[in-house]
Amino acid sequence: MMNDKMTTVALQAYDRRHHLQPFTDYRQLHAKGARIITRAEGVYLWDSNGTRILDGMAGLWCVNVGYGRQELADVARRQMLDLPYYNSFFQTSHPPAIELSRLLAEVTPAGLNHVFYTNSGSEANDTVVRMVRRYWDLQDKPTKKIIISREHGYHGSTVAGASLCGMPHIHKQGDLPIPNIVHIEAPYWYFSGADLSPAEFGIKVAKALEIKINELGVDRVAAFIAEPIQGAGGVIIPPDTYWPEIQRICKQYDILLVVDEVICGFGRTGKWFGSDYFGLKPDLMPIAKGLSSGYVPIGGVMVGDRVADALIDKGGEFQHGFTYSGHPTACAVAAANIKILRDEKIVENVERETGPYLRKRWSELADHPLVGEARSAGFLGALELVKNKENKQTFQPEGKTGVLCREFCFDNGLVMRAVRDAMIVSPPLIITKSQIDELISIARKCLDMTAAQLGVA
Ligand code: PXG
User: Fold this and answer.
1) 285, 261 contact by CB (below 8 A)
2) Region of residue 7 (phi > 0: left; psi between -120 and 50: alpha; otherwise: beta)
3) What angle do CA 63, 302, 181 make, to 5 degrees?
4) Which pTM was predicted?
5) Which atom of ligand 1 is nearest to the CA of 288?
6) How far is the CA of 119 from the centre of ligand 1 (A)?
7) Ligand 1 site residues, Cβ closer than 6 angstroms
C-alpha cells in the first residue's frame, strides 16, 4: 500500500518503475529521482522530506486562489453526494453547469455569452479548431480553413493543440502541425526588436498577420489564435501598439479572433481576462487553469454571439463533445472558485496592490549582472538571463543556464520555471507583499549562485 508515510526513496522507486510524466526526459529524471510534493497550503508546497517551498508558479500557472481552500473541498464533496456525474449529451443539463455558464457570461468580456465545456485547455483548443471551421462552413465559406498562430505560442498537447503551438521541438514529435495551421512571428521585442522601439516593433509584427493573410488568400484564412501574453513561450508581453493593430487586421479581413486565455484568464494580469487588460473583443476564448484554480480539471471555450448564433440558428447537430463536458463536480468547484475570486476581490487586489508591488520588486532584479531584462504584467514575470547585457549575447547551449538557476531555486525553497534561459514567475493571486519579498530575496540569492557557478562577476 502506498501512503504518505512511505519514504521518499520508496516513492521514487515506484514512480520510476511505473510513471511516465509529461514533458520529461525520463533517463535524466530516473538518474536522480522525482521531487515528491505531498501537501500545500496558501502559496507554499511541502515535499516528502518536509521541506517548504514557495510556489512561484501557482502549480502550472493555475492555482489562482491558492492551496487549501476548504470551501472548494466542501463544494466538491456535496456535489459528489448530490450528483457526482451526469452527462450533458442527449438534451440534458444540470444545475452546476447552468450556474457556471451564467457566472462565466457575467465575468467574461461583453459579447461572450455561451460556453462549451472541456476538461482542459488542450481540449478547448481542439474545440476551437472544429468550431472555427464549422462556423465558416455554415457561412457558406468552406474554403476558410487556415488558422494562423504564432511562434512561441503554447496551446496544448493534443494533436490540434500541439499543432497550434509555435514550438518546433514539439512539432518534431508526431508529424505536426496538421494541415492548415501556419505560424507568424511573435512580439518578442527583447530578442527580435533589433533597433526598433517597442512601439515600432509592435506594429511591424502585427503587420506580419496582414502579410500572411494576403499571401495565403483571405478566402482561405479562418482565424487567428493568440495568447494575450505568451506564457509557456516565456512571458512575452507585446508592446502596446501590437494588439490594436491585430484587432484592426482581424476586423478588416473578417477573420475570427481567438484569444487563448488559459493562462491570462481569471485574474492573472490584474484584470479578469487578458482581453480586458488589452481591450480585446474575442470571437472565441479558450479557458482552463484558473477557471477552477486547478482544484479539478475543467476547461471550455467562451463563444461569442456571432459564432454562437450561427451554431444555434443554422448549425444542426454539432458533432463534438466529451464524456465529461460540463462535469457536475468540476462545474460546482469552478463556480465556487469564481465566487471566491469575486467576493474576496482578489483580482482587484492584484491590480491595485500586489501586482504593482511585484512589478516594483521584480524590476529591481534588472540590476543583477545576469539579468538582461526584468519584465512583468500583473502576476506574470520573466527575467532574461544573458551573458552580456549590452549586446544581449546569450549563454550556450540555450536552456542550460535557466535549468541551473531553476535547480538552485528549488533547492532554496522557491519554484520558478525556466523557459530557454528566462526565469518565469506566475504566483498564486493571494500572495502577500511579505511573501513577494521572500520570493524576490530567494530569486536574487539563486541568481547570485548561478552567476558564481558560471563565473560571471
Ligand atoms: N493554452 C495555453 C495558453 C496554455 O498555457 C494550454 C492551452 C493547454 O492546457 P492544458 O490544460 O491542456 O494543459 C496551456 C497549458 C509550462 C506549461 O510548462 C504550460 C501549460 C501546460 C503545461 C506546462 O509552462 N499551459
Assistant:
1) yes
2) beta
3) 95
4) 0.98
5) 11
6) 12
7) 60, 120-122, 125, 154-156, 161, 227, 231-232, 260, 262-263, 288, 299, 417
Ligand 1 center from residue 391 Cα (angstroms)? 32
Q: Which CATH architecture has domain 71-343?
A: 3-Layer(aba) Sandwich (3.40)
Cα(7) to ligand 1 centroid in Å equals: 31
Q: What is the pLDDT of residues 138-157, one digit of tens each?
A: 999 999 999 999 999 999 99
- Please choose, from the candidates 247, 229, 275, the residue with its C-alpha nearest in 3D space to the C-alpha of residue 379: 229
DSSP letters along 52-106, please? EEEETTHHHHT-TT-B--HHHHHHHHHHHHH-S-----TT---HHHHHHHHHHHH
Ligand 1 atom nearest residue 57's Cα: 24
Q: Which three cell numbers stand for residue 165?
A: 503551438
Helices (H), 93-230: 95-107, 121-138, 159-164, 168-171, 189-192, 198-216
Q: Which three cell numbers stand for residue 150?
A: 504564432
**Boundaries of every domain in the chain:** 35-68+345-454, 71-343
What superfamily does domain 35-68+345-454 belong to in CATH? Aspartate Aminotransferase, domain 1 (3.90.1150.10)
CA of 156 to the centre of ligand 1 (A): 5
Facing residues of 52 across strands?
A: 46
pLDDT digits (tens, 9 = 90+) for 245-262: 999 999 999 999 999 999
